[in-house]
Each structure stands twice: as structure tokens, then as C-alpha cells.
């Protein structure tokens, strides 16, 4: 998913191609432009003309991260699908390690857990509160501070495609889907450009997660 990330896109593509250069099988990179207004759309469209491995999906307006990620997953054609953000807080260099972990453990999902972060103290504190709350009240397997950065096999992707939720919390949906899931711990970097989700948007997402994967709000 891409939303006003024009400044970081050249570096993202450079690091992606270096990280994926050792793969013997082919790959594609699906960019989903979520209503950008900073030239990201034009840059990606031109890049796709030059690079056959790139596909670009342009949404008609800004629908939000969860919808953009869902559009990318639905469009991905590979036997394995990596979901990651475009802001380089999720390091592309980790993808080969994720593929190796998938092979070594015969897993269907390799998800990443943040063991450190360069984000603000307030954001780290709020994230810790959210994950602890989800651990106590949710009805899905607890995966620690697992974000959206993950590798999935085709049968997991197909399973997500059969879930008809309109208002989505993807990391919870992947955990709920089951299958064999293993973690990789990593240090989450600082956003290098662009503006992340506002605290209001993150709070709405937290409420969405609690309402979707816990019956506590209903009891209240």
C-alpha cells in the first residue's frame, strides 16, 4: 500500500530488487496507490512501464490502509505473498529470511514481531496498551506485537479472499484463519518520509479490532 510516499519509492524499489535478486523463482511487486496526491501515482505508473515485474493498482480515492492491503492481496498471483508497507519501516532485506523460515518449518504464515522500534514514546506506549488489551480479550491466537509485515502461502491468501468482512483488521484475520504460523523478531525502523496514520485513525483501528475479534464490547 502506498499513500503519499513519493520520496521513499526509489529507495524502496532499489532495496526490494536487491533483496529479491537471489530468488530463483520469479516474482512480482504489486503497488496499491491509495489515493496519493504527491506524485506517487505518476512515479509508479512510469516505473511499471520500465519494469515488467511491477503492477500498479490505483484506487479511486483514499480508502485507508486495510482496504489498500486487501486490494493488493486479492490481486497478487504468486504461490507466496509478502505483505509490507511502503515506508521502509518493514525491511525488504528480511524477505529471504522469511522464505527460509517458511521452508524450514513447513509453515503457512511467517509473521514478524517488533522487538524494538524507533517510533515516538507515545506511539510505542499506545501500541503496548493495545496489544496487551487484545491479549486479554480477543478470541484469536495472541501473536505479540505482530504487525502487517508477513509472508503467507497461497492457501492462506485464498482463505482471506473468502472472508467477506467489509471493515477489516487484516492482522487479526490472518491470525484467526489458523494454519501453521511462526514468528520472526525484528527491529522496526523509523519512517523515512511521508506521514503515518494519525492517532485518531489508529484509535479507530484499535476499536475495529476489539469489536471484530472480541465479544467483550457486546457484553458491555
Describe the structure.
- With 220 residues, the chain is of the alpha/beta class.
- The chain is built from 9 helices and 6 strands; from the N terminus they run αβαβαβαβαβααβαα.
- Helix 2 (40-50) links the parallel strand 1 (29-33) and strand 2.
- The longest helix has 17 residues, at 121-137.
Strand order of the largest sheet: 3-5-4-6
Order of helices and strands: HEHEHEHEHEHHEHH
Question: Overall pLDDT, averaged?
Answer: 82
Low-confidence stretches: none
Beta-strand portion reads: 15-25%
Please state the structural category. alpha/beta
From the alpha carbons, calculate the radius of gyration and give it in angstroms: 17 Å
Question: What is the number of E strands?
Answer: 6
Distance between the termini: 35 Å
The proportion of residues forming helix, as a percent range, comes to: 40-55%
Largest sheet, strands/sense/barrel: 4 strands, mixed
List the helices and strands and how they pair.
Blueprint: H1 9-20, E1 29-33, H2 40-50, E2 54-58, H3 65-75, E3 80-83, H4 95-105, E4 109-117, H5 121-137, E5 146-153, H6 154-161, H7 170-177, E6 181-188, H8 199-213, H9 216-219
Parallel strand pairs: 1-2, 4-6
Antiparallel strand pairs: 3-5, 4-5
Helix pairs in contact: 5-8
Key descriptive features of the protein:
9 helices; two-stranded parallel sheet; globular; alpha/beta; four-stranded mixed beta sheet; 220 residues; 18% strand
Quick recap of the structure?
By secondary structure, the protein is of the alpha/beta class. The chain contains 9 helices and 6 strands.
Amino acid at each position: 500500500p502506498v499513500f503519499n510516499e513519493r520520496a521513499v519509492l526509489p529507495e524502496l524499489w532499489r532495496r526490494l530488487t536487491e533483496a529479491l535478486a537471489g530468488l530463483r523463482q520469479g516474482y512480482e511487486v504489486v503497488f496499491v496507490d491509495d489515493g496519493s496526491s504527491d506524485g506517487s501515482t505518476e512515479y509508479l505508473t512510469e516505473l511499471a512501464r520500465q519494469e515488467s515485474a511491477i503492477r500498479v493498482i490505483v484506487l479511486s480515492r483514499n480508502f485507508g490502509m486495510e482496504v489498500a492491503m486487501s486490494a493488493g492481496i486479492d490481486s497478487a498471483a504468486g504461490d507466496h505473498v509478502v505483505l509490507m508497507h511502503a515506508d521502509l519501516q518493514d525491511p525488504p532485506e528480511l524477505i529471504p529470511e522469511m522464505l527460509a523460515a517458511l521452508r524450514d518449518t513447513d509453515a503457512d504464515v511467517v509473521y514478524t514481531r517488533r522487538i524494538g522500534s524507533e517510533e515516538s514514546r507515545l506511539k510505542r506506549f499506545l501500541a503496548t496498551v493495545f496489544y496487551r488489551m487484545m491479549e486479554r480479550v480477543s478470541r484469536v491466537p495472541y501473536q505479540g506485537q505482530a504487525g502487517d509485515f508477513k509472508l503467507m502461502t497461497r492457501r492462506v491468501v485464498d482463505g482471506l479472499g473468502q472472508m467477506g468482512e467489509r471493515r477489516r483488521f487484516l492482522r487479526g484475520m490472518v491470525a484467526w484463519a489458523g494454519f501453521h504460523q511462526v514468528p520472526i523478531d525484528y527491529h522496526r525502523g523509523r519512517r523515512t518520509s511521508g506521514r503515518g496514520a494519525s492517532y485518531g485513525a489508529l484509535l479507530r483501528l484499535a476499536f475495529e479490532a476489539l469489536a471484530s475479534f472480541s465479544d467483550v464490547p457486546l457484553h458491555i
